[in-house]
Amino acid sequence: NAGATKELEIDTEKDRDGRAIREKVLKTAAERADGFEDDKKYRGLNSYVDYRAGFRKEHSIASEKGSGAHGPMRASSNVRMTFIMDYKPDICKDYKETGYCGFGDSCKFLHDRGDYKQGWQLDKEWEEKEKQRKAALAKLEQMERNMGEDGVCVPLEDDEDDEEDGIPPACPICEKTWDAIRDPVVTKCKHYFCEHCALRHNAKEKACFVCHRPTGGTFNTAKEIVKRVKEM
User: Fold this and answer.
1) Which parts of the sequence belong to the RING-type domain (predicted)?
2) CA angle, 217 then 219 then 223, to 5°
3) In DSSP terms, which residues pair with 224 in a beta bridge?
4) What one-character DSSP code corresponds to residue 128?
5) Residues 221, 183: contact at Cβ < 8 Å?
6) C-alpha pair distances (Å), 57 with each of 47, 62, 66
7) Average of per-residue pLDDT across 91-99
8) pLDDT tens profile 139-196
């Protein structure tokens, strides 16, 4: 099996780590212990000759492992990745469903009556909570915007609602008519824009271009405008 002998090199290369450098120093010291003539050449910081190393038995890699004289120990490079998906958890079915098991404490399965949710259920609950949180935050920001100087809530003026259907004849930003716009969108505050203008304005300011209320980054397809353009 090739996976059993596979190596994962995450540390320094084996020929450049502290152990390799120390082995090189000890080897050089052992070779130059007897009758060495210094040639006065500089061979780097790690090439100084320890003349005592060749005569001392304790100066060896084996004896220095415990003391850590040649640096930290290398981590094991032999790895074997395993992954287990527990499609059949060892839970006692009788105890989980009824709360009673005939085997009692001698049952080899786990006595647990807890319910575990699937990943998609947890994600769905989180998305719903985030949606509610953003809606509450947008409502709070809207109340703060509508608050007067004396702390009294000022009633909103919905000029567009007084019109026949509340749909302007063109995009308020680029002033293009709806028949010339490909993707019209509508905000939560019922103001209509073309998609390009709405996204560009939302990147600069998180509020509606018309009423300056927070949009929450939500733009839905303006089905009323699409229907009107088709009827033209």
Assistant:
1) 171-212
2) 170
3) none
4) H
5) yes
6) 20, 10, 15
7) 90
8) 887 777 666 555 555 554 444 443 445 678 888 888 888 888 878 888 888 888 888 8
